[in-house]
Amino acid sequence: MIQPPVPDEHWMQLAVDEAIGGLGRVEPNPMVGCVIVRDGRVIGRGHHESFGAAHAEINALADCARRGKSPAGATAYVTLEPCCHFGKTPPCAEKLIDAKIARVVVAVVDPFDQVDGGGVRRLRGAGIEVVTGVGEPAATSQLAAYLKRVRTGRPWVIAKWAMSLDGRIATASGESQWITGESARREVHRLRGRVDAIAVGMGTVVADDPLLTNREGGPRTPARIVFARTRLPDRNRRLVQTASQTPVWVFAGPEIPESRRRELTDQHVHVLPLRSTNRIEMVDEALQHLGSDENPSGVPLTHLMLEGGGELLGSFAAAGQIDECHVYLGGKLIGGRSAPGPVGDPGIEKLSLANEFQVESLESFDNDVRIIYRKIGGPWSTNLVPFNHLAVVTGGQTSEQIR
Fold first, then answer.
1. Is 99 exposed, middle or buried (0-12, 13-18, 19+ CB in 10 A)?
2. pLDDT 10s per residue in the chain (403 long)?
3. Residue 234's beta-bridge partner residues?
4. How far is CA 356 from the centre of its chain?
């Protein structure tokens, strides 16, 4: 009995699965997967493995060679449009043409202005059949952080908090360690190893004196960021004391004297002055800076993780700049009218004004539960298909320029 041909969507899903191998390793480039198929069989597969290294298409072609399979006449399934310009690597579109690929199926057309359909046009100009939009919902969801940064110039923002069953992040006296158990806390550290930066407000620095380091390993060493509207961290804080080993950046409000800013600079802290004292304007200015190549790392940030406290989360929520929430629910009841919740002022007056989120995943860790939510809507269209991208599932130089 003759089997019907396998639909393109099946092979594209394999490419989406393949792309996950680059999670946390390719940023600020996007995760991309490629699968090469001929006669209903995969003859090559690959993903973009690390920043500055070969792209997914090149690795898939190399896999064909390792298997002793010729890609001539085959179909390549790629989650993001093949590049058509010279960056850190040569154009992938040209490599597919040279390999005599007969057909290319693309999930998402790359919005970066040096590509933006140029790869598709180059392939078609060489006589290759190109189909776009196959598997686009899943691939778009996987690429959401990259698409947001390219289209808005801002990194993807993940808000993380742990709270009790009744929605408190601390007791009325301020005690917060620990609402969740060790397994959940280890998972938070693993997440830290996949993001570009971790941010807290001055309230958290004063109350907890955190290190914000990643103690579970991972491909990335995140910068540690403090939002300081009216005061800076003291020299004896652990963040300041360890700034020479792991980067610390402080966004400082305009009311903070330059002399105080210089004191931290002398301690290897990068102090980044902001123009406004308005919390929403501060968030917007900081995100634009982090999404450009003018931040202290020299490359655009893809993922920013917020770890508290309530004022910082409240400011980002009011600015509409929380894209994803990782909510850890501990099996404790705290109570108390004055016990704080996770998101502080300014808040909203009407539910109709609230940003809406959809559940991406739910997972238990011993006696705790983690729920991952993603914001519904936005120019990166993240509300298409759930994609557990960081548990699992980003102005200036963009990732395709330095890809």
1. buried
2. 556 677 999 999 999 999 999 999 999 999 999 999 999 999 999 999 999 899 999 999 999 999 999 999 999 999 999 987 656 667 899 999 999 999 999 999 988 766 777 889 999 999 999 999 999 999 999 999 999 999 999 999 999 999 999 999 889 988 888 899 899 999 999 999 999 999 999 989 998 899 998 887 788 889 999 999 999 999 999 999 999 999 999 999 999 999 999 999 999 999 999 999 899 999 999 999 999 999 999 999 999 999 988 899 999 999 999 999 999 999 999 998 899 899 988 888 888 888 899 999 999 998 999 999 999 876 555 444 444 433 333 333 333 333 3
3. none
4. 19
Contacts of 159 (CB under 8 A, 6+ apart): 305, 306, 313, 316, 317, 322, 324, 325, 326
pTM (two decimals): 0.87
Dihedrals phi, psi of 160, to nearest 5 degrees: -120, 135
Look up residue 191 and give its amino acid. Answer: L
Q: Which of 165, 202, 168 is nearest to 342 (CA)?
A: 168
Separation between Cα atoms, residue 300 and residue 286, nearest integer Å: 12
Measure the N-to-C terminal CA separation of the chain; round to a whole number of Å.
Answer: 46
**Annotated active-site residue in 9, 18, 49, 57:** 57
**Could you tell me the two tokens for 43?**
């003859």
311 an active-site residue? no
* Cα–Cα distances in angstroms (integers) from residue 365 to residues 60, 168, 182, 232, 393, in the given order: 36, 19, 9, 36, 19
